[in-house]
Amino acid sequence: MNHNQSPDHNRLSSRILSKTFPELQSGELLQNIFDSDHQLLRKILSIPPLIIWAVDRHGIVTLSEGGGLNHLGFLPGEWVGKSIFKEYADDPELIEIFRRTLNGEELQRRRTAGALVFDVEYSPFFDGQGHVDGFLSVAIDITEKVASQEELRLSEERFSKIFQFNPIAMCITEIDTGVFIEVNEKFLTALQCNREYILGKSAFDIGFWPSKESRREMIEKVQKEGTARELYFDFIIPNGTRLCTMLSAVQIYFRGETFLLSCVKDVTREQSALEELEKLNENLEARVASRTAELEHAHAILNEEYTKRNRLYNALQQTEAKWRSLVTNAPDTILTLDQAGCILFINHQIEAVNMDDIIGTSIFSYMNQSHIHKAREKLQKVFDSGKTQLMETEGLNTEGKKTLYSCRISAMVSEEKIIAAMVIATDITQQKQAEQELVRRRAELAHLSRLSTMGELAAELSHELNQPLAAINNYTNGCIRRIQSGTTTLDNLIEPLEEMSRQAQRASETIKRLRRHVQKSEVEQKILDINAVIQNSIALLEHEIQRNAVTLQMELSPGPLRIIGDAIQIEQVLVNLLLNAFEAMSEQPPEERKVLIQSDQEQTGNLMISVTDSGIGLKKGQEKSIFETFYTTKQKGLGVGLAISQTIVEAHGGKLTPRRNKQGASFILTFPVAHGDRISVI
């Protein structure tokens, strides 16, 4: 610009200033600006990222100013005198904008120039007769704004993916009202409802929170400390079920507002298991109190491990960097794998192994050789079907020690394409050890019960042994007398000698059955023929059946019925049920003392055994109490037989059910049928 500006140019500049900066409406102020050689105007227009063009009615540029011109490689005033119709002849869209503006339209457009993005306003100005005298173009460089918006969009997209595919149940709610803004699939699964039912409603609308007071206390904790971690609440899901949950929450900035991000862990099963354990511990006999204390300690360790594994992280943020930090600090080992099993990411570093040395290596190099084939199959299924796979395997922990892991393999999806697999590996070493300890404790308790039962039978079993021993003694004395008299031959001695052999074999089998029943041993898991188990149990009680004058009838399946279990423990259950039946019929006349044993396969596929007696039967309401520890209707006994029998049956995956009959009672055992060709010899 020079000092000798024309009046028309001054009027144009005044219009540009008043258009761009409407606060400058004073004529005196504008006149002072032009009287100072337009230095203020030039300084104002030189501020990036502004670009201003003035074009006359013929399309000739009369003004080109603004610091944004430098971004395009032009100098202020460089375009003055050029025709826009010639310079942009190859851009029909822009030519059309020029023509429409010169026809009196005000237009707004977003334009790009290489990597730059501009918001442009085209405004016509008029002469004193109301005719279009040209137009003013004001362009603002919004490249950084657009880039920021795109970065924000990508960040929220990454947040959304991590949120939706997270194995922890999560929800985003309004802080004040509790209205659900977003929930992930794990949260919908936990509540057993669909997304449409949840979104837009508050937690109180669906009865999720037990009270407004409890939520307010949680919110106050978040606002005071920044986060609320490991708070236990009882929540009611839409179907009416009450869940015991562990909740953690943190404030996040999402979609331009502040919301509450909550993580919910269902610990109902763990809580129920703990309560059941406490109940069992209260009812155990004094002689196993010390062992029970050890079992409680094992369960305490297991519960502590569950708590550590599900401990929520200190803070959740909307950016990828903080989400990565969250994953890195997780107690579980988290990996991402490609289809070939190559490690793309791992959150924990193995001791003495650099993290960079782990990335890019094969996950199979850290696994037990016997598990590699199965792991490859599971990984391929995830990439083929997208369905989550589960498996247990042995690997290395952060200290480089071999550890047993429970692995959850899930698909990571982007734009409807599986790009990787996420593996969440949970250390279950202590859990498995606790389970093994529980099995050992149960076997010990069952052994004690067998000793108690055999103590009651000892007198009767000794009588059963005396019979063959007395027969052997009589036959021996008879043979000696015959030989001494000299009136017999060797042929006459064969028959009594054979009978002596049979009686000795009978005594031997009785002793074997007794030793086998009371012997302490580990729980066996074999395929059994249940009919053979029934026969062995009856053989153990042969003398007891005779002594009580019981008529025993069996209706057994013609074919073998197979289960997987421990023969000694099943025999213990049957012996206990038969002894209870004999006692229930003790007041009946001998001709009415009848026991029926049946075995068959139900239509459901389960194996069924029933023991039915003709005794005094069960009173109404007694079906549940008879299984309580120390409950008994006998003059003798501790009242633990049926309780232990129920424990043994349930440990085999079965069920023990009592039934009241018109006369007597029935006890029905059901077991899952085992499939296989080999039957263990009992």
Beta strand %: 15-25%
Q: Figure out the total of helices.
A: 22
* CATH topology type of the largest domain: Heat Shock Protein 90
Low-confidence stretches: 1-13, 21-37, 312-317, 677-682
The CATH class of the largest domain is identified as Alpha Beta
What class do helices, strands and sheet pairing give? Answer: alpha+beta
Query: Over the alpha carbons, how many angstroms does the gyration radius reach?
Result: 44 Å
Proportion of helical residues? 40-55%
The shape, in one word, is elongated
At the fourth level of CATH, the homologous superfamily of the largest domain is Histidine kinase-like ATPase, C-terminal domain
Oligomer: single chain
**Largest β-sheet summary:** 5 strands, antiparallel
The CATH architecture classification of the largest domain is: 2-Layer Sandwich
Number of strands: 22
What is the first-to-last residue Cα distance? 112 Å
> What's the arrangement of strands in the largest beta sheet?
2-1-5-4-3
Question: How confident overall, as mean pLDDT?
Answer: 77
